[in-house]
Amino acid sequence: MPRVASVQNAYSLLNRTYEIGLAEFHEREQVGLLAYSPLGQGFLTGKYQRGARPTGARTTLFERGQRYQKPGTEAAIDSYLAIARDFGLDPAQLAIAYVASRPFVTSAIIGATSLEQLESDLAALDVKITPEIEARIDAAYQLHGSPAP
């Protein structure tokens, strides 16, 4: 049988369960992660905070996103938004850059509804996750875990 070359799992600042369930095995077996939803269906941009539902946004149009509306998720998002703000980064770029920086991620699958969003998301390739940013992200993760698995 052909061996598995990659898997496609959700992976983001809000859902890091891949790290404890599969990352070690996949690294040993050289299976790459095609990480989908690095923005947590847009929730990591902050546009849905405090119950906001912007016109035209996917979660507004399709009543999706229940995974990101669980208890504790909004507080976790607030933490990541604060990290982005404190380091002068766009929240979406921070979230994508973090996912792309993981050694087990082969590709981060992004979705954009406008050319402006796509350009901003692609600019995440220029964002470096420094040790200081990593430490803040790790501290937020220790506090909030993966609230949206």
Protein described:
Helices cover 42% and strands 10% of the residues. The protein is mostly helical. It has a three-stranded parallel beta sheet. The termini are far apart.
Furnish the topology, listing elements before pairings:
Elements: E1 6-10, H1 17-21, H2 23-28, E2 32-36, H3 58-62, H4 73-86, H5 91-101, E3 105-109, H6 115-122, H7 131-144
Parallel strand pairs: 1-2, 2-3
Brief descriptors of the model:
3 strands; three-stranded parallel beta sheet; 7 helices; 10% strand; 149 residues
* Rg measurement, Å: 15 Å
Distance between the termini: 31 Å
Report helical residue fraction. 40-55%
Q: Can you count the beta strands?
A: 3
Structural class: mainly alpha
- pLDDT averaged residue by residue: 93
Poorly predicted runs: none
